[in-house]
Fold these 4 entries.
Entry 1:
Amino acid sequence: MKLIGSTTSPYVRKVRIVMAEKKLDYQFETEDVWAADASVGAANPLGKVPRLMIEGHETPLYDSRVIVEYLDTLSPVGKLLPPSGRERADVKTWEALADGVLDAAVLARLEATWPGRGEGERSQAWIGRQMGKVEAGLQAMSKALGEKPFCCGIHMSLADIATGCALGWLAFRFPQLTWREDHPNLARLSDKLAQRPSFKDTMPG
């Protein structure tokens, strides 16, 4: 398998962590989706990473949620998704929440930094709206986590990987946010996950 993506993308990082936790072999090829000569659009019509190339298959897999769900079926090592039912839905809901926080934060950052817009063209109202979603998402995660050791109970799952990637990217791109002080239970979870080799080896930046 070959994974194509960016070392700073939290969605790519989620896939890389799943690969490491499940001890899967793969090649990692970096690609800048913003480069003028980027080929990502030819393989993913949405022009995004990650995408996973699988030997013997012409069409790649794309979207991190699709990729990690597929990867979890490849090995019984480190199962990250319950097989079915409400437990599986709970993990996937956590993943959707964490990815949704990232989606909003990415939109806010692009509005503030994308070189294709002049300073007078940037919308502070749009940035504020997206950052409001980030804060609401963090509050929801903190409330749902409570005092549990992991997002969905006593074992690490895909919910924790997605949440850890979201928190790690916020710390990387939005160091001014005070989520660690505002939500100490999320900070504890983030610190615990950061000790795992899979998280250490994929730190952005």
Entry 2:
Amino acid sequence: MAEFWAAVVAFYTGTFGVPVRVLTIIVVASLVRLVLQLVIRRVVNRVISGVKKRQNVEDTAALQASPVAAMRIVQRTRAFGGVLSSTVTTVVVLVSLVLIVSAIDPNATGAFSLITAALGAGLGFGAQNVVRDVLNGLFIVTEDQLGVGDVVDLGQATGVVEAVGIRVTTVRDVNGTLWYVRNGEILRVGNMSQGWARVILDLAIPYDADIDAVKERMLQTGIEMRSDGKWKRLMMEQPEIWGIESISADAIVLRLVVKTRTGAKDDVARELRARVKRTLDAMGIRVPALGVAAGGAAKVGGSDDTPVIPGVVKPQATPRPPTTGGKK
């Protein structure tokens, strides 16, 4: 046995010792990275599978109708797993490089210290943005500001979060464009997937219309929609009439609101508009002309909806997490 280990030592210190040591370091580093990545992936999958099992669903998209905490666990776990995987890769690569340099030239330790000091000084100036990106990315994930699958407004881009890396967060907008946003440049996060959302429907009606009758029928239309089994699980509360939002010479703007689940806001809004339109037709009410009503409604603040007026071009819909083809 002693002869065997003596032969191994002689092999590593012989003519081909340096290449062999370098190769060994690379192989070991690759195996360590692979094992850690598998562990991280396994833990993430087990957490997600546990949440799905408790909620009795098979697809993550089905969690939209489940308690908010379950969806947040899945999204946060995926985001944290992505950041942790990137961190592991970075650490393994850096440690491997140090070991390879030491294997090539054992006397390079002193020189390497000087190089490290120089690199540290360089990080303080040239690479400070990279350090800021990394630190900000860690804070974003640990504070649960966003997660994979969230619909967010980052200022630079608005869309569905597809990945959260150690330096960059990728967001897919409603047009399908994939945006790469540096974590250090994210100064604010508007998360539209946490808690609940609200549909705000502003309706412009003629000035001489019976306001009380219209308000009653609008509210009744919303309540009837919520009693429908298809929409009941998506509308968290009964619709409310907030009253008159603005008045002009020819139009009065009424506001109807309803609290919904985050992933169902646009679907509920579209269906509610269609039902309100049919209600107005049944009442024989014609909305004012575009120019007249829009002038009064333009003063309405805080609404994500324009008055229900024929010919109005609606703004782009809020992007939603994909319901098919996504992560299971």
Entry 3:
Amino acid sequence: MKLFLIVSCLFSTICAQHAGTNIPEAAPQITIEKCSSGGSCQQEVSFITLDSNWRWIHHVDDSVNCFTVNEWDQQFCPDVSTCTSECALDGVDQANWSATFGIQTSGSELSLKFITEGPFFENEGSRVFLLESETKYKMFSLLNKEFTFDVDASQLDCGLNGALYFVEMEQDGGLSKYPTNEAGAKFGTGYCDAQCPHDMKWINGEANVQDWVPAENGEPGGNGHFGSCCMEMELWQANRKSQTYIAHACEVNEPTRCEGQDCGDDASGDRYNGVCDKDGCDFASYRMGDTSFFGEGSSFQVDSSKPVTVVTQFITDNGSDEGDLVEIRRKYVQNGQVIENSKVNFDGVSDYDSITDDFCTDIKDLFGDVNDHQKKGGLKAMGEALKRGMVLVMSMRDDHESYMLWLDSNYPEDGSGPGVERGP
């Protein structure tokens, strides 16, 4: 992608999420551009850091693993406080960005690889954040602005997801807020999103080891007792078959560790009782009834077999940076031509071509979906997060639970009617 734009510890023991020193961190550089409406652009040198969930976790005094594939080592991690004090996150050196994690930068380009056969293990997917310095994420305040990137999804088949999105993380990754966090943004800590993920190995500077359940069938990762919630604005969830952009509002205005009902877990039947709108308000061309807008080949308006420029505009009610968000507008540029977004193509619904509160209400009524978007504050709440500042995330992943059917196939599988077909 080319970018433009605490548990207390006994006695004197130090209870902390340590930053390891076995491997020196070597954050790759990437160049972005900040442009004015008059067309003048200024280059900025930024850096990429790897999410802490992908990093090596080892005993603080040596190189013995605290976490292997999908399980915590009970010797070091019998409980939260012991694990937090005994284990450390470590760096990624220059050679291992590509060799182990399949991540490369060159100038203003970032390349992510799904499967990488590393020297010690097979890596699956990745998630990276944009840094403005060694210790701070770059914060984007996007109200009354547009964000533009070039993307090549031609190698991503169905079931995979190359994503670019924003989440409301702490700028320093929680380093100053949580005394147990000694790693911070430099080591990719503090991730959260509107799904309130339980698979985070570290939340609020503590190991998420309580009630940890390893992933099934030997897959990497697992789920702990706590989740990590925050506002999320998804600009691009896509493969070469289908794409969508989604606004997820939350009732919380900062990264929040959740448990129980607040996490909104499907397993407990609390999806719409949590603090975040997990469904979001999504504009997916295929799902909106235009099956010829995005796909492989020249017969589609946007040809996913070739690179495309994706433009997202955040429109306020008064045209100022301090206004309320009322519209999220999408445009594409390919082969030198500006391509306006597709339109909703269902009888009885206006031919919306952007995300607005009216669009969300009408389309959810048509699809028979719960309007959790409105319940959680709608675009106004989303706009407040965009005003406060959000962190840029870029990732590559698959989906062991729903197999990405929500992106490029029929979902739910046994469903029928408008909105079920989301891709070919």
Entry 4:
Amino acid sequence: MSRPQHPIEVRRRAGVLLHPTSLPGGSGAGNLGHAAFHFIDFMADCGLSVWQVLPLGPTHEDRSPYQTTSVHAGSPELISLDLLQEWGWLEMPPAPDPADPDAWHLECLRRARSRFQRHASAADQAALREFIDSHAAWLPDFACYQAIKDTRDGEAWVDWPAPLRDREPQALEAFRAGHGEAIEQVMFEQFVFFRQWHDLRRYANERDILLFGDIPIFVAHDSADVWANREGFLLQEDGHPQVVAGVPPDYFSETGQRWGNPLYDWEQMSRSGYSWWWERIHTQRDLFDLIRIDHFRGFEAYWEIPAAAETAIAGRWVKGPGAAFFEQMLTRFGDLPLVAEDLGTIDEAVEQLRDAFHLPGMKILQFAFGSGADNPYLPHNHVPLSLVYTGTHDNDTTLGWYQSLDAAAREHLVAYLGQEATDMPRALNRTAMASVAWLSVVPLQDWLGLDGSHRMNQPGVRGGNWQWRFEWDWIDADLPGRIRELLELYGRA
């Protein structure tokens, strides 16, 4: 069974990569409020028709959207308090505490629920109940997990008292009975997040803009998903992982990368018809028009590392579920609006799996220069069923990348472009638009011409990541016109 071409892939498009936390406004980070709608207006003015974001789930202290406490839930951090006030669900809150904006934000959400209980219309009250019922596959477990975690000062579930850690029915019943308000608060926050996101998606779709999401193949060990579905993961009796995910040693790291995520028990998941994954993709389809699967190669084979190993050297390749998984998803959904993140160590088997289901892969222009003409990231090697990027959230900005190039790579870049690359990043933005790839995505930093100090994430570096934000006055008045002209030139407007 092969995946047919999805209708949204029929025409050439161009997009922008920007996580909502990078939007202006809000106390500690950007949110789904007026700035998000204004950003969609900006995109429409430019002729851009795809907004790509990172995973939207609740993050841990490091704020990485790739290590969340739920694969279904939205981050309360993204909820707009301004919209809550406009809905009549929140009175004007006190001034935020600059020392702890997160605590202030959560206090405002508690006030919003209190006012909602007293003043919300019957229709809104019914909508909340309907939301809880329709997300029964994951929401009660997540709400209980989050409430327990909050009462234990953020402690990981594997360190909870054994009855709660192991989900003994009597222990869970007793906790729910004593912490009903906290559990209902979590459910209310998810109701608000999903309502605000759906309003934003509707606004975008009305302007011919698609929302593009991201599914990390692996999940955080400290998450509601692993706690509530231990049978689907390779864990010890006490909940600690038997083996963990990562990638083998390569040119970039002599010891590889030990990510630490628990690995799936694919045999068990297969026996259940991959129901856990079906629910996961179902939630993301409800949020997005297009979805990227991060580390796609793990479905063909993944690097399994003993949990006790300190590095990835002792790992081994283990076969993943392969075509059987995607056949099941295709049978369930009828179509798969998925993109394969096929970067890194990719072999023929991974490419065959990607191509068998007609999934677009990714081409990164920052990886293209400094080697031979057979480099798959060079534009003359692109194929229509692919996405081209100047760089991703894990790369330096294109200007920062260009400024750090060695002499050989810079010489190759200049020779390939046929001109001095003094107009960076515009020269690479133009190259991305000219590609035959169906979709061209440029990070906002590159549309704005920003240097490496505006980088979103630096893999392998602790601290300082995921915090970048822009300001409206960084956007020149003539930028939308310049972008639209470029998109029209290459048939992407």
